Amino acid sequence: MADERSTDFGFQRVPLEDKARRVRGVFDSVADRYDLMNDLMSAGTHRIWKRFTLALANLHAGQRALDVAGGTGDLATGLARQVGERGLVVLTDINGAMLARGRDRLIDAGLAANLAYVQADAERLPFADGSFDCVTIGFGLRNVTDKAAALRSMRRALKPGGQLLVLEFSHPQLAALKPLYDAYSFRVLPLLGRYVAGDEASYRYLAESIRMHPDQETLLAMMRDAGLEGCRYHNLSGGIVAVHRGYRY
Fold this sequence. Notes:
The protein is α/β, with parallel strands linked by helices.
């Protein structure tokens, strides 16, 4: 039975205080193969989803952006190119191994002058109110213990007029797609995890965590409850992924 002292970790119920430790263990395990696995799992489609998100960001030179749970830095890379040398992008992740991997990738890409790195919890972001023109979180919200707190924290960090973009796995909208998606998620993904990343359990958790994440309309309502306005979402790949956006006015 679910209660206020427990939360989901995939299909399991675990104590609230235990989820962050378990999620950290997942990403400690997969950090070195994370980018390769993303390409294999999505056949490269994750790059299209991220390009769409960056197009919505549409930042200008000199602006400031925050990429929350930014992992190995795909969104941060695009944001840094948008804001240019006079701007600033802060990449955060609660997981030190993922953050280090992201920093190394961005340096290798020749991006350094307009980037900063902070190990931080999405629920308690250590930034002043109204610090950023845009906040992004890509494939990270479903791993957060208290999603409502994270949405409030990200809204607080936005400047008036700034937007939050949430790129996340969601719920397919085509009935015919669901059995194929389930078969792929629960049979193929764990096998890829076993043979490529050497970690079948983490990729089984991935599939389970997607199913436990709020659907499009539920997340939309959560964003409104967090104080964001003008909220809407865009389904991608038939709703397998959605980008939710909202503004702080």
